[in-house]
Amino acid sequence: MTSISVINGPNLNALGTRKPEVYGRTTLADVEAMCREEAGKLGLDVEFHQSNHEGQIVDWFHELGPQVASGASLGAVYNPGAHTHYSYAIRDAIEGTSVPVIETHISNVHAREEFRHHSVISPLASGIVVGFGVYGYILAIRGLHQLSRAA
Ligand code: DQA
């Protein structure tokens, strides 16, 4: 079965308890279940990841590159967390592997602190979903699927 990866960066393991007024009360386990259900409707399998470590995320993109090239994976729904704003290592991994990425943020980063307004990932993203809460993951899965059909 064709898969998509859902990759979550630092602090997203604390979803549900971290700043619930910004990120809501849904846990990452709930998000994983939502993603599996939505992807299942589209006939897709999900590889669901979270790490607080930049190098681990670079490694996941390196593993994903050949899977996308072979058609086994459509790409990644990716919430980079704070890596969004400064990780050139992850930016370069995405560029180097040509993995299609839907950059996804739970909050509207543009309505928040200035440092959140800039993303080093966005220029490489196939699409961006911002500010829909955890429902954004569903939109991103649908978007990634739609883009792959259009390609
Ligand atoms: C976030 C926004 C980032 O600025 C922040 O560092 C996060 C979560 C979001 O989903 O809204 O950790 O990516």
What can you see in these coordinates?
The protein is an alpha/beta fold and 151 residues long. The protein has one domain (3-150): Dehydroquinase, class II (Rossmann fold), CATH 3.40.50. The protein is 40% helix and 19% strand. It has five helices and five strands; from the N terminus they run βααβαβαββα. The protein has helices spanning 20-23, 28-41, 54-70, 88-97, 135-150; strands spanning 3-8, 45-50, 73-79, 101-105, 127-130. A five-stranded parallel sheet has the order 2-1-3-4-5, with helices on both faces. Bound molecules: 1,3,4-trihydroxy-5-OXO-cyclohexanecarboxylic acid. Residues 11, 79, 81-82, 84, 105-107, 109, 116 line the site of 1,3,4-trihydroxy-5-OXO-cyclohexanecarboxylic acid.
Topology:
Layout (H helix, E strand, L loop, with lengths): L2 E6 L11 H4 L4 H14 L3 E6 L3 H17 L2 E7 L8 H10 L3 E5 L21 E4 L4 H16 L1
Parallel strand pairs: 1-2, 1-3, 3-4, 4-5
Helix pairs in contact: 2-5, 3-4
1,3,4-trihydroxy-5-OXO-cyclohexanecarboxylic acid binds next to loops.
What fold name stands as the CATH topology?
Rossmann fold
Strand order of the largest sheet: 2-1-3-4-5
The second-level CATH architecture is: 3-Layer(aba) Sandwich
| Beta-strand segment tally | 5
Report the major sheet.
Answer: 5 strands, parallel
Kindly name the structural category.
alpha/beta
* Mean pLDDT score: 97
What is the ordering of alpha helices and beta strands?
A: EHHEHEHEEH
H/I helix tally: 5
Fraction of residues in β-strands? 15-25%
| Helix-residue proportion | 40-55%
Radius of gyration from the alpha-carbon trace, in angstroms = 14 Å
Heteromolecules bound? 1,3,4-trihydroxy-5-OXO-cyclohexanecarboxylic acid
Head-to-tail CA distance between termini: 19 Å
Spans of 5+ residues with little confidence (pLDDT < 50)? none
Task: Indicate the CATH class.
Answer: Alpha Beta
